[in-house]
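Quick one:
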Amino acid sequence: MRFLKSYNNSVALVENEQGKEEIVIGKGIGFGLKKGDQIDQAKIERRFITAEDQESSMQLKDISARTLELTTKVIKLAEPKLNIKFNDFQYLALADHIDFALTRSEDSIDMNATNTRWEVRNLFPEEYTVAIDAITVIEKATAQKLPASESILMTYHFVNATSDDAKLQETIQITQLITEIIKIVSYEYQLELDQQSFNYSRFVSHLRTLLVRLLKDKHQEGEKLDPALLQLMQVKYTRAYETAKRIAILLNAKMGWQLEADELVYLTLHIFRVTSRQANTN
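Output:
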C-alpha cells in the first residue's frame, strides 16, 4: 500500500494493491512519509475507498486529526462496554458530531435537551453511563467543558451503533415513540413502571426491536400465527391486549404502521409480563 499524500496527521490518501485509491485513518498514519513510500498497515484503524464512498472521503478531509483521535478513543471505550461495533458510517457520524460539539463548546452554544434527558437516561441506562464516561475522556483531552446536552446526544450515537443501518434521526424518533408507549402502559395500569427492573429493560428492548423492524418495513419473519392464539390473548390477557391495541392505534396514527397479529401477540405478552410481575412485588 503506497502513500500518496497526507490530509493531516491522522488521515492519508493511499493506493492499495489493486491500484485503487483509499483514504485511511490512523494516528500519525502519514507522518514523515513521501509519495510512493509504503504505509505501515498496522496503524490503519479505518479505510474508505474513494471511488465507492466519495461523500465520506470528502467529509474526512474536513475533520481535524484531534477529533479523529478522540473519536477512536471514544469508540474503544464504548465498544467493549456495550458490546457494540461502529461501522464506517457510524464512525464518521460520531466524528462529525464530536467536531461540532467542540465548536459549540467554544462558542458557548447548548442544545436544550432537558425535556428528554430523564427519558433517555431511563430508557438507555447503560448507553447513558458510557456517554458520561466518553464526555469525561473528551473534556480531559481538550480541556474544554462540553454542553450539558452532550450526555443525551452521545447516548443516541451509542444506541444507534446497535444497528448497522440505523440513522441517528431514526434513533431519536424511536426513543420518542418508546416514551409515548410507556406512558400508555403506565396510564392504562395506573402503574409507574420500575425503570431499574429486568422486565422493564426487556420490555424496552422488545419495543426498540419492533420499532426498528417497522421503520425498515420488515415485519416478523416466520410462520404465520394461529388465529386461535390471538383469540386466547384476548381472553386470557384482556387488559394487556387492550393496551397493545391502543399502542397499535398510536403507531398507526403517528407513523402509518399496521401491526400484524403476531406482533400484537408478542406485544401483549411483554405488556403482561412487565406489569403483572411488578404489581406482584408491590
